[in-house]
## 1
Amino acid sequence: MDQLNRPDVESFKKQEKTPIVIVLDNVRSMHNVGSAFRTADGFAVEKIVLCGITATPPHREIEKTALGATQSVDWEHSPSAAQTISNLKENGYIVLAVEQAQGSINLENFEIKSDQKYALIFGNEVHGVSEELMAEVDACIEIPQFGTKHSFNVSVAIGIITWHFTYKSMLFQKNGTIEPA
């Protein structure tokens, strides 16, 4: 940890976080859940909300990919993703579904605002973000793809989207703009 200049868990919990909440809606794979925790730790997001059937720590299968990030990342479970969305909106978050849908905005075209908090919803591996939730989100963003497959694994999508939002946030902090330095 020292050689990599990484904080310990206690220091990590106290440090300033990227203003992002990751919402997992009915994600079936515990390995995907663990990967979400590890990504959330890597980008220092505020927290993860595990909704519906999404498994919760502690669990051996989650820890295989989380590698201890369930101890560093704040998280909660909610039986209702719809209630979670409502609560996040009440607390000033812009709620975004990450989904391929009519009217979605390509990731590179979505305008990230420096003074805004974001909640990013990732859906079930087979069915995606539910229609019920799609009706409640502020917008839908999509990762451009150029191959033969129609989607990314949810854990990969979480990494891509979270990196993009974190990178833009870092540029704002450094330059007051989203233009690269």
## 2
Amino acid sequence: MGDYAAREGDLDATGMRFAIVVARFNRDITEELLDGAERILRKHDAADVSVLWVPGAFESPLVAKRLAASGTVDAVICLGAVIRGETAHFEYVAGETAAGITRAALDTGIPVIFGVLTVDDREQAHDRLGGKEGHKGEEAALSAIEMVSLLRGLP
């Protein structure tokens, strides 16, 4: 077995620039996701945070890709809430949003974080806003910080 060194990024966001793309659909939920993400970015000393609102989660990947390709941010965090009971085309919206966010990251080489809740009902969404499932907005921001840090240390 060859040389192997385990690495992970740290959580110091000093000097890092972030954009947060937030879906207006289910705004009561997405505002809570945004609050959590902003709280974490402030706590970890992010240099700059821009917030951009889009109509729904489905529109997030295009804006995220444009931002990631701009050279003005180190990471993009996409926040949204797709609720099965409120969206007849749940599978399409959730699946295509995830695929688009992944593509934006791979096409640009910039971390584009999937912070979109895909849940069956509003109760499950609220469980992910600081309830028994943690706070997914905070988790998305932590992932963004760690990925920027990790990528900075790679060739």
